[in-house]
Amino acid sequence: MIRTLLALDGALVLGALSFVLAAEDDIRVVGRVDRVAAVPDAVLAHRPDVMVADLDFIEGVEAGRLGSCPVLVLAHPRRAGRLRGMFCATRMVGVLRCDVAPQRVIDGVRRLARREPVLDADLVVAALHSDGPLTDRETQVLSLTAAGAPVAEVAVSLGLTCGTVRNHLGRIARKVGARTRVEAVRVAREAGWI
Q1: By the 8 A CB rule, do 61 and 13 touch?
Q2: Contact 105, 54 (CB under 8 A)
Q3: pLDDT tens across 17-34, in order?
Q4: How far apart are CA 111 and CA 103, in angstroms?
Q5: Do the Cβ atoms of 8 and 16 come closer than 8 Å?
Q6: What is the pLDDT, as a whole number, of residue 63?
Q7: What is the pLDDT of residues 107-142, one digit of tens each?
Q8: For helices 136-146 and 151-158, what crossing angle results, to 10°?
Q9: How far apart are CA 16 and CA 29, in angstroms?
Q10: What is the pLDDT of residue 15?
Q11: Dist CA 86 CA 83 (whole Å)
Q12: Residue 192 confidence (pLDDT) above 80
């Protein structure tokens, strides 16, 4: 029996995946978590053989607090850049797109339980080529903006004029398909560019 812990955002997703996995003869859902803060305690309490988790849930928990439990991470392709560090983690990590068919998750749980790799090729390629569309200077400008620095402060920090910073922010917004600076920051963070 593969003891499985689910750490996913949203009651509907949690319930549906729990139902699908519980229907399998060799898989038992031992716990369900819908908050990042609850993950370490759930791992300690349930001692799962495999955990299925959203990318945000795994990023929010120190690796040492998960023990040696293999994790099947479900990620959106737009967030592939954030997966790079997971491939270097000491624990076994599998990665699938969050919109895969339920059977792929079932197969992924079984493979991870046998300590076999589970990787979505498209996500891996996207993660390895996720430097993004921004130049180094644009990344610096957007990072300072994301930290809350106003245009004048960004300009002073980088030795630029306020007009140049505004031009960079305009180009950044166009490149990432955003309408505002705030939206550009959100898109870049989700993609793992800043």
Answers
A1: no
A2: no
A3: 999 999 999 999 999 999
A4: 12
A5: no
A6: 66
A7: 999 999 999 989 888 777 767 666 677 888 998 999
A8: 140
A9: 12
A10: 92
A11: 5
A12: no
- What pTM was estimated for this model as a whole? 0.67
Tens of pLDDT, residues 69-117: 899 999 877 676 667 666 655 467 889 998 899 999 999 999 999 999 8
- Identity of the residue numbered 20: V
Distance CA 87, CA 48 (A): 21
Q: Which tokens hold the place of 179?
A: 């309408």
For residue 53, what are the β-bridge partners?
7, 73
User: Are the CB atoms for 192 and 78 separated by under 8 Å?
Assistant: no
Q: At what angle do helices 162-176 and 151-158 cross, to 10 degrees?
A: 110
**Helix H or strand E segment including 54:** strand 50-54
Q: Say if residues 35 and 60 touch (Cβ distance below 8 Å).
A: no
- Nearest CA to 54 out of 73, 34, 82, 32 is that of 73
Residues facing 24 on adjacent strands: none
Q: State the chain's mean pLDDT as an integer.
A: 87
* CA dihedral (94, 95, 98, 100) positive or negative: negative
Chain centroid offset of residue 108 CA: 17
Task: Output the pLDDT for position 58.
Answer: 80
Residue 165 is which amino acid? V
Q: Is 38 exposed, middle or buried (0-12, 13-18, 19+ CB in 10 A)?
A: middle
Residue 150 DSSP SS3: coil
